[in-house]
Amino acid sequence: MKDLNLCFIGCGNMGRSLIGGLLADGYRADRLCGIDPNPQQREITQGRFGIEVYEDNPGIVNQADILVLAVKPQQMRAMLTSLATAMNRARAPLVISVAAGIRIATIERWLGHDLAVVRAMPNTPAIIRTGITGLYANQRATPEHRQQAESLLRSVGAVVWVGMEEHLDIVTALSGSGPAYFFLLMELLERAAVEQGLPAEQARLLTVETALGAARMVMESSHTAATLRQQVTSPGGTTEAAIQVLTQGGIEQLVRQALVAARNRSVELADRFGSDA
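Above: the chain's sequence. Below: its structure in token form.
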């Protein structure tokens, strides 16, 4: 993997997260390059990582073994059309897309049907290398291609392969949007504690450390989250009183509705961004 050349199409937050993860894993900077029309993004990426980043150099893709698509979905069609014109089919790279809402069939239509494509759905904790990514590959992707894609995304966290591309819409709703759900809960807990008289700094620290500890308990335990919840909910205790309020308030239904809404929106955006209209 480390002897391959990678070219990042788009050097925004996610592109830079992947570049930083690769370099931290021992990848050489001279094996990486980027293309980004935004001068600020180019300056940040070059200054932070010391790699070559071009404003517009479609021909550079012919030096790449792996092409990472990290541009905004609305920019994808124009970028891929430009790359397709310059691409040498005799040396076609593995294409890994981290662009939300762009299906593999759309990438194949714009870039070419003869390419191995892996679609990835990472989440924002990838910025601090604690993310998780859902992956799906087309039929042209070999086991070696899948391993290369997995190695790349593991540089910023864990990975999960899904069996159907449609499952990436669920991944988007669960883990892609998921950090915001936990941020919201933490925000509300912190605010409620302050309203009851706790100093803001203490409320924040207690909230953050509680969330971190709960996540680590689930990660390190052989029990499910449901079992752990039951174990800390003593009959007649304070936790039971709080859980009853949340349950009676319909939290289970709200969470289900939230994930369905996010999944449906993911499908809608894929339809919009994938249209040639």
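The beta strands are 6-9, 32-35, 52-54, 66-69, 94-97, 117-121, 131-137, 157-161.
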